[in-house]
Write a structure and sequence with these properties.
By secondary structure, the protein is of the alpha+beta class. It has four domains: 104 residues; 106 residues, no CATH class; 104 residues, Helix Hairpins (Orthogonal Bundle), CATH 1.10.287; 153 residues, 2-Layer Sandwich (Heat Shock Protein 90). 52% of the residues lie in helices and 17% in strands. The chain has a five-stranded mixed beta sheet, with helices on one face. Helix 6 runs antiparallel to helix 7 and helix 9 runs antiparallel to helix 10. The longest helix has 70 residues. The protein is rod-shaped.
């Protein structure tokens, strides 16, 4: 990797890293803001729940007091008009001790006026309920019980203790208030004998880890015991916060993924370009050698004709001219192949399908390949497909199969055994060419159809070539909408399959 490429890579990676870092801090701060909002919400819900639970307890005791005052065996309710005060005075007296009584001329919730008759139950109920409400607002809501009459005071004390603060009654109330705020995070109550309502309290690390959100402290006004202050503790509200962040979080996450993917893709492309550059250099070296050989041979023949008086000898003249002609034809064919591969790679060539006999053409190519080689070549052909006629471009079909057969011969040292088998696979005529050559390693096998790629041993190629053959084959197969497959083991030969639609 040169210095310029390295600088660009460092610059891109740094820029992307900064974007990722900024995105991370933005998401982190946004999460923190939502966590603080959650803390405020649960504190408000907890405060409302405490008030509601206390109000429900007062409602219960108030109702019990009203019913108790209607019990004539325990209380006597009377009323009369006071001329001096110009008011109606209503009295509650202990039925067991008439001197133990309490009187009132005004009530907090009603403007009751009139003389109370003994049999006026409806009016008596209104008086009882008015007294009960007064006891609630003056006593219960101030967490104090005044002994206005002994048996009433005792009754209120007993029921205040019976309906004292209890987390069992508080839990469903708090759950309902949290539900109204779409909060469904597990919680538990934390009770203490002493605490600070200013929320100044230290909690051990283990507790804060398990319950990171702890509400403010509120007094319970419990008459007995050490449970004088209560808090609500919540487990990690991650799911709630993520749901609130919603599309914002999803968008940020998508940006992070896209940036990370872009970085990986950029790195992959850079290393791919480096690999292609090496393949290109290798290709140039190979193709230069391929060009030099016919040029050098033709040049030597022409030089012999001009410098060694060969022109006087017609036989030698014809021999050198034939050498020159053959080498120039070879050079022209090589140039045409390179130009054709460029066209095939862009899929800009067209095919002219026609019906032809597959068996005859394949046997002809095998026979010709075996006849012109300087090796001992044995070939075996077997068609089990029951397909003998194929609709394809005959010329390109021949080029593709010829390339595969040539590779089989070229990469097999010594005696060559080629097996060609035809079969039908999922509506395609699969033509498999198997050799007994040097084979291909598992690392190189996936890349054999890449343009310019050649399997090498170190920095040397022991077989002449330019890495265009199988790329050419691939373009022809794709143009016919077929498929191809390579199977090989190093030292165990290679099997190439080309499939054509039938």
């Amino acid at each position: 990797m040169n210095a310029k490429t390295r600088f660009i890579l460092i610059l891109c990676v740094s820029a992307i890293a900064i974007v990722l870092l900024l995105q991370f801090f933005w998401v982190k701060n946004y999460y923190k803001v939502n966590q603080e909002t959650f803390e405020k919400e649960v504190n408000m819900a907890f405060e409302d729940a405490l008030k509601k639970e206390f109000s429900l307890r007062c409602d219960t005791i108030q109702h019990l007091i009203a019913n108790r005052l209607m019990d004539t065996a325990e209380f006597k309710i009377t009323g009369e008009y006071n001329e001096d005060k110009k008011k109606y005075i209503y009295t509650i007296a202990n039925a067991h001790n008439p001197g133990d009584k309490f009187s009132s001329s005004s009530f907090s919730n009603k403007n009751i006026k009139g003389v109370l008759h003994l049999n006026d139950t409806i009016f008596k109920r209104e008086i009882a309920e008015s007294f009960a409400y007064t006891f609630r607002s003056e006593d219960l809501e101030n967490h104090i019980v005044y002994y206005r009459t002994q048996n009433l005071g005792g009754f209120m004390i007993d029921n205040s203790q019976k309906y004292d603060f209890d987390t069992i009654r508080l839990r469903p109330v708090l759950t309902n208030y949290l539900k109204q705020r779409d909060i469904n995070v597990p919680f538990r109550f934390y009770l203490r004998a002493k605490d600070s309502t200013l929320n100044k309290s230290n909690f051990n690390t283990a507790l804060k880890t398990k319950y990171p959100i702890i509400t403010k402290s509120y007094p319970t006004y419990k008459q007995k015991g050490e449970q004088q202050y209560v808090r609500a503790m919540f487990t990690n509200p991650f799911s709630y916060i993520i749901s609130k962040m919603g599309l914002m979080f999803a968008g940020s996450l998508m940006v992070i993924i896209m940036v990370a993917f872009s970085l990986l893709y950029l790195l992959k492309q850079l290393f791919n370009e480096k690999r292609l550059s090496k393949i290109k250099d290798d290709f140039i070296g190979n193709i230069t050698h391929e060009f030099k050989t016919p040029i050098a041979t033709a040049s030597a023949a022409i030089e012999a004709l001009t410098d060694f008086n060969v022109l006087d000898d017609k036989a030698k003249t014809q021999k050198y001219l034939n050498h020159s002609k053959n080498e120039l034809v070879r050079l022209s064919a090589l140039v045409d192949k390179i130009l054709n591969v460029a066209i095939y790679d862009t899929q800009q060539f067209s095919i002219a399908p026609e019906w032809f006999n597959v068996d005859d053409l394949l046997k002809k190519m095998l026979y010709e390949s075996a006849a012109i080689q300087q090796k001992q070549i044995n070939w075996f052909y077997n068609n089990l497909s029951q397909v003998h006629e194929l609709y394809a471009d005959k010329t390109y079909f021949e080029h593709a199969i010829k390339n595969v057969i040539d590779n089989a011969i070229k990469y097999t040292p010594g005696e060559v055994n080629i097996q060609v088998a035809c079969s039908v696979e999922n509506g395609f005529l699969a033509i498999a060419v198997k050799d007994n050559g040097i084979g291909i390693s598992s690392e190189a096998l996936p890349r054999v159809f890449e343009k310019f790629y050649r399997v090498s041993s170190g920095d040397k190629h022991f077989v002449k070539g330019h890495g265009l053959g199988l790329s050419y084959v691939k373009s022809i197969i794709e143009k016919h909408h077929g498929w191809y497959k390579a199977e090989s083991e190093y030292g165990q030969g290679t099997k190439l399959t080309l499939a054509w639609p039938v």
